[in-house]
Structures are given as C-alpha cells and as structure tokens.
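In response to reviewer comment 3 from the previous cycle, which asked for concrete evidence that the modeling workflow produces usable outputs, we include below a single protein chain processed end to end. The sequence was submitted unchanged, and the resulting structure tokens are shown without manual editing.
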Amino acid sequence: MHIKNIITDQKRLFLRENVPKEYLIDPYLGNPKPVYALALPKNHDEVVGLIKWAIDKDLKIIVRGAGTGVAGAQFPIDGNELVIDLKLMDKIIDLDEETLTLTVEPGVLVGDIHEFVEDKGYFYPPDPASKHSTIGGNVATNAGGLRAVKYGTTRDYVRALKIALPTGETLDLGSSNIKSSSGYDLLNLFIGSEGTLGIITEIKLKLIPKPKENVSVIMSFEDVFKATDATLVLLKSGINPSEIELFEKEAAKYATEFLQYDLPTKKGNAYLLVELDGDDQKELELRLKTLLELMKPYALEIVSLLDEDKKQRVKKIRDNILIGLMEYTEYEMLDEVVPINK
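The workflow returned the following structure tokens.
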C-alpha cells in the first residue's frame, strides 16, 4: 500500500523535499537532514496505517505535537524518518460529568482544555508553562507545571489511553474507574515514555471540582538560597499552597524584555510566586495571614496580586522565561530536577 492511500488528502501529506521548513529547523540543534515524509493524520486508523507503512518501508517514526519541545526530541537523525504530526487530532470528544472524565484527542492544546473545563466549573490542575503545548505531548513527557506542588503532575490525571503500538496493533489501557488494582500498571509505563513505546491517539483525563477561591503573592529575596529556605518553610507550614514557583531575576529579565512589561517588585535577585486556593474565603484569608507572617524573616518584599490582570501578567512572565532566553541568548537546554533542599 502507498502512503497516499492512507492519507488521501494531499494537503496532509508531504514527501521529501516538499516537507515544510518548519519541520526541519530546531532552535537548539540547528538544521537537521530532510525527512522521508511528513503525514498529518486525523484519526486512530490513519495513525495505525502510517505505522504499518513505515514498517514496510523500514522507516523510523518521529511523533510530533505542537512543536514546543526544545530538547531535540523531534530532531531527524539520518533522513530516513516518517514524521507523524498529531496536531489535527484536536477534538474534545466527550465530557462525562458523572465520572468527571474528559475524553480528548492528543492534539488538543492544554490551554484549551483549561478553558473548556473551567467554563463548566471543573478543574484540570496540570499547568505547564507552554499553554500551547498539546495534551498528547504533556502525557508523553508527564508534564508538571506550577500546580504540581499540591496537585501532582499529568500522570495523576490520566485515567485511560488508546495507543497505536510500534507493531501497528492497538492497545487500550486504564478505565474510568476510580480504583483498579488488576495486573501490571501499563498505563503509567506509557505516561512519560516520550513516544518511545507507542503513539497516543486518545486520552481520558480525570477532572476535579474547580476551587472557588484563590489568592496569589509574589515575593522577592536576596538570592536563590534565601528563596529556597523560604520554600522549605512554606512546605512544612500546613498552609498547603497550590503553586510555588521559584525563578531568578537574571532569567526573568529576558521574559520582561520579550513581553515589554515588568514584575511588580524591583527588589532582590530571586522570586517566589505562590498561590493558595480553596472553597472557604475566611479559611483562605487565615492561610494567607500565616504565609505573610512566616515570610517576614525571609522576603525583602511581598506583593499581593489581588488584581486578576496583574496576577496573570506575573504568571505570563514566568511562562515566557524560556521564550525570552531563546529570543535573546545562546543557550544549552538542560532540564534538571534536584531535591528541594539542594
């Protein structure tokens, strides 16, 4: 079978020199070799057909979503690759309000998921900096984000997956059940596997009720070590922050230059963006009061972000640090995790 019989719409299929240049440029690794073909499937069956065709042609497969990754995962090595771009598989299929389960295709943007569910009074907590990344990419990398400190990462909100295996077979993992303890936990094996075990074509996400209230502050510190000490105090305090994000002045300046507006504090060399959420306004105010008292010995300045627009501007600065670095500097991409006390 020819690939043109699998992807019959020729606007979704590009061969060799016709592959658009956007697929052949990597902001970190430069210009890769041309690929064998690019296909943009619109359903599971087309993905399976493409896998079987790649097997027949002895091609490697690169899976792509929104292209927001900057660590070289989409980089063609030898020109013998089939790129499968899932961005057209972008449907929100179903919202089951009885089981609080949202079924989506992998190309849906995580920011669109947030907007869709929050308009209906629900909450999908994972909140990566790249709101224009796809949910398929989020599952493949087990994306975290600002709210991971309280709510966990993407892994904690995936109920089920439909996967096209490298053999062309289909695997359905997980369910809408709250608890399942039967057999091997293959669902969690695939989450975070970065496309090495198969191609995700459908995702069932767990939702929770949206918290009724929230309040945010940004705090400035003398240096990152003082900010880290403050973080340890917050985590042990019992105030249960929904967000704690640490970033340095040196990094934030590239985002502020890119966005053309500044942080609401000029002091210090490191910052903590902290948010508290809940359903009881009075209880939230008590937790905020505790936070302010605890931080007095550590912070140079504490600015309450009572205005929603101001809060979103600060969060946008944090989210655009990487974009600012890419825009104004030469960089080497490293994504490292260390214990909070290190």
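The first helix runs from residue 44 to 57. We consider this sufficient to address the reviewer's concern, and the full set will be provided in the supplementary archive.
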